[in-house]
Known about the structure:
Chain A: It comes from Streptomyces lavendofoliae. The complex is a heterodimer. Chain A has helices at residues 2-9, 21-36, 78-94, 99-118, 152-155, 169-176; strands at residues 11-16, 70-75, 123-128, 131-132, 135-144, 179-184, 190-197.
Amino acid sequence: MTLHGERVAGSELIAQRSAPAGPTVAAARTADRAGARSTASGTSAESGAPGVSGGAFADPGPLPGGPGRSSRFNVASEEDLLTVRHAVRAATVEAGFGLVDQTRIVTAASELARNAYVHGGGGSLEIEMPTRSGRRGLRLTVRDDGPGIPDLDQALTDGFTTGTGLGHGLGGARRLMHEFQVHSRPGEGTTVVVARWNDR
Amino acid sequence: MTAPRATGVPILRLGDVLITGLLNELDDQSAVAFTDELTERIAGDGARGVLIDISRLEIIDSFVARTLMELTTMARLLGARVIVAGMRPAVAITLVELGLQLTGVETALNAEQGLTAFGWHRMPRPAGEARRDAPR
């Protein structure tokens, strides 16, 4: 099937913080091949693909919490990076996260927003505050329309950088959050969705 | 070379030690400008030590981490020793999880301990008073 062939060829990853990248990629692709997907542009988070037991969205379906509140910010300048940090910090406080979790989430947001700004030529960051099984959480969706990431495994490798950072941005953000997804194909931009749930 | 952009970050001199700090609102351009300014001061003042207080930094992401590591290296090349002081515990936890160890950057718990490492000490107390490290 052309659609599936394209998807497998493209860079897509669903991963849990602790899961090694390789097998998880395989699991996601297997799920794709199982025909759970009907559109090429949907996100895997809502795909409801069965059998992705190792993935972060093992219990998918529309993520609970409903539409909830969400706010969206442009990431097109360095001032925007600071604005985004403030907004994410405020949201973590509102969601009741402790200080260390606040710091983790704001740091991850900073990495992802900078990626969108530096590599994607600007983009947007959306903050959602879903709840699941009574736990509050924070979900960030960072989008850009940049060149995309040709090799995701490489981009997730510590120390790999094409910019001015240390090459820990994407992989670091994955470790700082409970859930991590990145959709990217060359020429079609990059979308990263991360979430962290409040244990308190 | 154009004049460094003013960052508004004070750089104080105490003997041969420069004392400064990073602000939470430091954006990328300011971070670069700060690096320029500080290295100029190290050379100009003949500083042998630089204390950078980072107690106001609420996060350190990979860009700030890189800035600190580069600053440390530049200062070392200019003959000065850098001590980064006052990192918040939550920042330390996050940095490690991020995979960053600030390799090569000397740290101190707070500015006072950093200054102590540079050889600065509190004023000696008048005779007869208990030593400050004596058990009370």
